[in-house]
Every structure is written in structure tokens, then in C-alpha cells.
Amino acid sequence: MTVAATTGTGARPARAGRQPPLAWVGTVPFLAYAGIFLLLPTGIVVWNAFKGNSGGWTLANISALNTGPVRTAFTGSLELCVISSAIGAILGAILAYAIASGNPDGIIRRLYIAGSGVLAQFGGVTLAFAFLATIGPAGLLLHAGWYSNFPWGIALIYCYFQIPLMVLVFLPAVDGLKIQWREAAENLGGSTWHYWRYVAAPLLTPAFLGATLLLFANALSAFATIEAWEDQINYVVPQSIGGSLISEVGLANVHEGDALALGMIVLVVIVMTGYFLLQGRAARWQR
Amino acid sequence: MAALNQPLADVAAELTGSAAARRPGGLRASQRRRLNAFRYLAFTLFGLFFLLPLLAMVRFSLEGTRPGTWSVSAWTQIASYPGPPPLLSSIEVTLELAVITSLVMLVLVVPTMIWVRLRVQWFSRVMEFICLLPLTIPAIVLVVGLAPIYNRIERYNVSALMLFWAYVILALPYAYRALAAGLNAVDATTLSEAARSLGARWGTVMFRIIVPNMWQAILNALLLTIALVLGEFTIAYLLTYVNLQVNLFEISRSTENAGVLFSASAATLLFAFVLLLILSYVGRRLRRGRP
Questions:
Q1: Is the ipTM of this complex over 0.90?
Q2: CA angle A193-A196-A200, nearest 5°?
Q3: What is the rounded distance in angstroms from the CA atom of residue B276 to the CA atom of residue B223?
Q4: CB contact under 8 A, A30 and B109
Q5: How far B96 CA lies from chain A's nearest CA (Å)?
Q6: Its pTM surpasses 0.80
Q7: Each residue of B19-76: pLDDT tens digit?
Q8: CA of B40: which chain A residue's CA is closest?
Q9: Residues B53, B94: one domain?
Q10: Disulfide engineering: B101 pairs with which of A280, B130, B167, B245, CB 3.0-4.6 Å?
């Protein structure tokens, strides 16, 4: 089909200000798909979280969240997320600065950014195997006794994808530090310490905190790695959710998984809202 | 450790080359020395941290029957590992899922995004919200709500390929961001007005004017989607389907330290890395083609 062949069909150029009422129909397939496979499942989770075993409405599922094993799982999740996101954020920020202070077109920068892109996604079963081969019971590097300790053993494994994610998220902020600001600080007699304390740190703080929150949410929702690391004990909430899905028979209430999932949604939404607010603040300096 | 030497050589080149004079300008020589020492140290330590687990995995995959010996049997086992189900069949399923998911994602998202950009602008915020929503509804939560829906699907089709319905949703945020970056770089309104004033139909505008201008973004979205499907475990495992990752997980539970675990994992990673390399080279050539 050539462009010339279509001239006879009476097509008119689009005119600004005139929106045919049927244009929105084009979004229907997308909306329908997202509705069925994203919004409906989310709705089902929220709906079922308040459903009793026999069908009526109840708050029993929610109050069941305040029992021993569930509380342990939530505490475990928080511990693991705080440790892995704090370590990941600090080390990732150091690496981001090392990358940003080099040649912007250099191979080392390209290598680390491409590598971060791969490794930030490199969660899952494979990652657990890689660390099993390195520091596991038969590990090549060392037979670390703490390999199977919660939370430190698994936190080290999580750092393997947290640090690259931090590099990806935080690098734009570090790149945004203008060399003129440092020169200005030095011209005014400031030392390196002054520059970092009074110029760079205040500028980078919102971006740093925002990125840390993103890492936190990332660790919170990770499931595959920790399941492959240890599937006999439910250390974190995702494992409890998985457990309640797999063995629905032995549960006191069939909708426990939904209540746990709702708890996760609430946590993630809080954390991600903080992230977006802080990102907005950080973006002011990144033009 | 040849891979490590390359970055170090690069730092050395930067120390003396023009690059060093350009970026940390305004630094005194002593400061620059300290900065470079810090960078040496950082790149070495982080490089070791990231490389050692990969190297250990590769070494494990090449271990013979007695410790300390070398053998490629774990790699040849990828094709023949009996399972059940056989490893090869789950690899096949995963690759098919990657293809189906990418195609459905493209067909669903690309035309909609262009259409919204050109004709239904008020919808763009809604679309962005929906596409980024899976970031706040992680897979482990989504699967809880998907379980009843998949119960319904299984009445018609029990194939593991049905996982693509959920995988498209998981890929949405990554695909959307890649595509939005590409679409923002194109002046879609002017292009479409020009084409329309020459008599082009909307289909022509979309697929022969806009899409060719965002190949790079489409390629990005494709590769992100493929990488995601190759590594997906949570949804398949909890809906009791068997894809590659679930199969590896099951093998690790039945046979401790089976060599095939490490060879198959290394192969998956290598595959994803090669895809990324292809992307970056094709991308650079596409960019160079532009004025």
C-alpha cells in the first residue's frame, strides 16, 4: 500500500480542537486486558481479604495478621528489607559516584551500566544457585557458616541485585552534580569536606532516600531468591503468601493469603508513594 | 581474571588521557590522585563481588564427577536431563512463552500508546498509571488474585503457555517506560499531521510513519520482556506450572548440587547477556544512522 493510493479514501488531516467522540474506543483492548489481568486480581485480593470461610464479610482475616507466625514473617521482611536496602543503597551510591566521576563515554562506564541493567534483574532461582556455588556448604570461595543464617546470609545475596539497582536509579542524580558547583565552593575557600557537607549532600539527599525506598520495596516483593535459598522455613511475608497458596487445605481460614497480600499492598504503596514524592524533589536539580 | 583487567586498563588510560582532564576539571592534582585511587579500589572490589558468584557458578557447571576435575557433562545434560518433566521441554515452554509474551505485549501496547498520543491525550495519565501499577502490585501479590482467574482458564486450556496472560502484565512497566522514551523522542503530532495532510490513513500513520521512528524503543521493550520471562519463577511456581526456573528449583530440591543446575543457570544468563549486547550494538548503529 502506498501513500498515494490512500488519497482517494477521503481521509482528512487531523485538526486541532476537534476530537471525534469515538477515538477512545481505540483504548478498549488495552483497558480490557489490564482490567482482567491486573485490576481484577487486585480487586479479588482486597475483596477476599474481608471474606469469611463461609462467604460472609469479616475482619477475622485481618486480625489473624496479628498472630505469632505472621508477625514473625512481617518482622523478618522488615529486617531483611532494612538491612539489604541500607547496605545496597550505601554501596550502590559509592559505586555510582565512582562511575560518574570517570569518562562519560568510557568503556568502564558502559560496562558497569550494562552490567547493572542485567544484574538488577538477576534475581530469582539462578541468583541463589550462584551464591550456593560461591559460599554455600560446598562453596568454591569459602564454606561460610553464616550462609544459611537469616537475615545476614540472604541479605548478602539480595545485595547482588540491590547494588546494581541503586546504581541505575542514583546515577542520574550524581551525574547532575555540576562541576561548576565544586569550583564555586573552592573559589569561596571551601574544602572538599565543605563541598560534600554543604553542597553535594543536601542536593543528593532526596534522591538517595527515594532510591533507598525503591530498594526497600524491591526487597519486600522478592520471592524466588529466598524460596530457592530456603523453602522449609517461612522467613518473610512473600514466603507465607506462597505457603498459603500451595497448601490451602491446612489453613484455619482460606483467605489468609489474601489478607497477607493486602498487607503487602499497603506496605508497598506507602513506600512507593514516598519514593515518588522524593523523586519529584530530586528531579528539580537534574535538568 | 582477564575480564577484570580491561576496566583497570581503562582507568589507567583515563588517568593519562584527555578524559581525565575533561571530567574532574577544577580538581587539584592531589585531589585527582586520591579520586583515582578511590575509583581503582571501588571498581576492583565491586567487580570482584559481581564476578565471583558468576565464576563460581561456571566452575561448578564444569565440575567432573570427582571434585577438582573438569568436565562438560553438565552442559550436555541440559539437552538430556530426564526430569520429570524433562529439562529440555521446560526450556522449550519458556522460550515459547518469551515469544508469545513479547508479541502480545507489542500488539497490545504499541498501537494503544501511539493512538493515545495522537488522538486521546487525556487518557495518557490513566495509561501511565495502569502500566506502572505492577511495580506496586508485585508478582507475589498479583498471583494471589490471579489464582481464581487461572482456575477459570484451566477449564479451557491447561497448557503452561497460558502463563503469557500474566507475563504481559508483569512486563508492562518495563515495556511502557522503554516505549514512552522512544515515543517522546519522536515529534508524533507533526509527523502525523504531515502524513494525514498527504492523505495517509491512521493505520499508515501508525505503522509506516511512527513505528519506524521508534525501532530502538521497541527493541528495548522486547528484550526487557524476554529477559523477564526467562527469569520468571513466582507466578509459574505458585500457579503450579513448570517453566525453566520452576524446573531448576525442583531439580535443586531432589538432587543436591546437581551440575545441570549451574550449567542451565549460566546458559540462561549468557543468553540474556548476549541479547543485551545485540541490543546495545543495534542501538548504536540506529543512532549513528540519524543526522
A1: no
A2: 165
A3: 7
A4: yes
A5: 20
A6: yes
A7: 434 444 556 788 788 888 999 899 999 999 999 999 998 888 888 777 778 888 788 8
A8: A98
A9: no
A10: B167
Structural domains counted in chain B: 2
One domain for residues B115 and B238: yes
Q: Which CATH number characterizes residue A219's domain?
A: 1.10.3720.10
Residue A49 covered by a domain: no
Domain count, chain A: 1
Q: Is B70 strand, coil or helix?
A: strand
Q: For residue A181, list chain B residues with Cβ-Cβ distance below 8 A.
A: none
Considering only CB atoms, which chain B residues are within 8 Å of A165? Answer: none
pLDDT tens digits for range B67-105? 778 888 788 878 777 867 788 889 999 999 999 999 999
Distance (Å, whole) CA A55 – CA A44 = 14
Residue of A223, A262, A279 to mutate when probing chain B, most B C-beta within 10 A: A223
* CB nearest to A133's CB, from B14, B60, B138: B60
Range of the domain at A64: 60-283
CB contact under 8 A, A14 and B252: no
Give the dihedral of Cα atoms B213, B219, B220, B224; nearest 10 deg.
150
Q: B261: domain range? A: 80-289
Q: What is the DSSP letter of B86?
A: P
Mean pLDDT by 10 residues, chain B (291 residues): 35 39 58 87 93 90 80 80 81 94 95 91 90 88 92 88 94 92 88 90 88 88 88 92 90 80 88 79 67 44
CB contact under 8 A, B199 and A3: yes
Give the model confidence (pLDDT) of A156-192 as tens digits: 999 999 999 999 989 988 888 888 888 888 889 888 8
CB pair distance less than 8 Å for A134 and B42: no
